[in-house]
Amino acid sequence: MVGTKKIAYVRSDELLSKYQGMIQAREAFKVKADSWQTRIDTLKNEFESAMKAYEASMPELNKREREDEENKLRRQQEDLVRYTEAISQQAEEEDAKMTQGVLNQVNSLIEMYGKSNGYDIIFGANGSGNIVYGVEAVDITNEVLIALNRDYEGS
């Protein structure tokens, strides 16, 4: 017969949203994302300016010159679309990589916390139905959050 097990849970969403490592990772990611968006906005403005310039000069252009300008504008627009799609994909990949890195840190610390505090099982409650109810006495979210942030600030 197996003895009584020490079991607890953490509110995963709250843990991640208040973990300083996640907060700082999100801030760093936002700086990158803002930089990418600024570049996209610049390219979009350049395209719009080129389009306005073309429209203004169109009456003065012959058929061949209009076709050349339209081809140039089409290529510029295609480049903008390709760049925007590439940045979107890169942002998704970097966000996933950053999130996984933080999750690895959190899971590692929860494992160490569990071992050092004698827990047999620590569940993660994420609002998706894994744990629908738990008494507050077995909710160790705040204790783990304190340990996570202390560990993060110390590193």
Describe the structure.
With 155 residues, this protein is mainly alpha-helical. Helices cover 73% and strands 6% of the residues. The protein has four helices and two strands. A two-stranded parallel sheet has the order 1-2. Helix 1 packs parallel to helix 4, helix 2 packs antiparallel against helix 3 and helix 3 crosses helix 4. The two termini are 42 Å apart.
Number of domains: 1
Strand fraction band? 5-15%
> What is the general shape?
rod-shaped
Secondary-structure arrangement, i.e. CATH architecture = 2-Layer Sandwich
CATH topology heading: Protein Binding, DinI Protein, Chain A
Uncertain segments: none
Structural class, please? mainly alpha
| CATH superfamily descriptor | Skp domain
Query: What fraction, in percent, of the residue positions are helical?
Result: over 70%
- Side by side, the strands of the main sheet go 1-2
User: Mean pLDDT, nearest integer?
Assistant: 90
Rounded to the nearest angstrom, the distance between the terminal CA atoms is 42 Å
Brief write-up:
The chain is mainly alpha-helical. It is built from four helices and two strands; from the N terminus they run βαααβα.
How does the SSE layout of this entry go?
Elements: E1 7-11, H1 12-18, H2 20-57, H3 63-116, E2 121-125, H4 141-154
Parallel strand pairs: 1-2
Keywords:
6% strand, 73% helix, single chain, 155 residues, Protein Binding, DinI Protein, Chain A, mainly alpha, two-stranded parallel sheet
